[in-house]
């Protein structure tokens, strides 16, 4: 079967803050910026993976979501309980220093894990947890 990941979605409450983090700090590139029905979706991705994108979308982006559902999503986002994505890098220490210097909330400092990776974790400006890992031997 020819199956590949194309896009994943991360809820953000402020696209400008999110873009400053994802583009200026993580050095992802903007691929698309679309407004529709009063909402905004911005697609970013790594120049090293032109066929994989992260869509930064509003919480409860479904225009048919009830006001209660939209409120619940906004509250979960504000608490930092929504998960983000995992990234790999060949130089975890340099990436950690860069992201920490940006002021992002550190969840976990670089740690050697028993399953063969060294990883760390931060929250993006919206509170989503992002993990960064370097495989042993990379």
From TrEMBL:
PROSITE patterns cross-referenced by the UniProt entry: VOC
Chain ranges of the VOC domain: 4-135
Residues in coiled coil: none
Name of the protein this chain belongs to: VOC family protein
């Amino acid at each position: 079967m020819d199956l590949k990941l194309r896009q994943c979605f991360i809820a953000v409450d402020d696209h400008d803050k999110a873009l400053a983090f994802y583009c200026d700090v993580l050095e992802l590139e903007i691929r698309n910026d679309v407004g529709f029905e009063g909402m905004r979706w911005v697609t970013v991705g790594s120049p090293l993976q032109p066929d994989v994108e992260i869509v930064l979308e509003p919480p409860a982006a479904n225009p048919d979501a009830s006001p209660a559902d939209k409120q619940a999503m906004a509250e979960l986002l504000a608490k930092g309980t929504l998960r983000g994505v995992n990234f790999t890098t060949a130089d975890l220490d340099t990436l950690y220093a860069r992201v920490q210097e940006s002021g992002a909330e550190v969840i976990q400092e670089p740690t050697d894990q028993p399953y063969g990776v060294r990883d760390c974790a931060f929250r993006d400006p919206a509170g989503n947890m992002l993990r960064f890992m370097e495989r042993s031997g990379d």
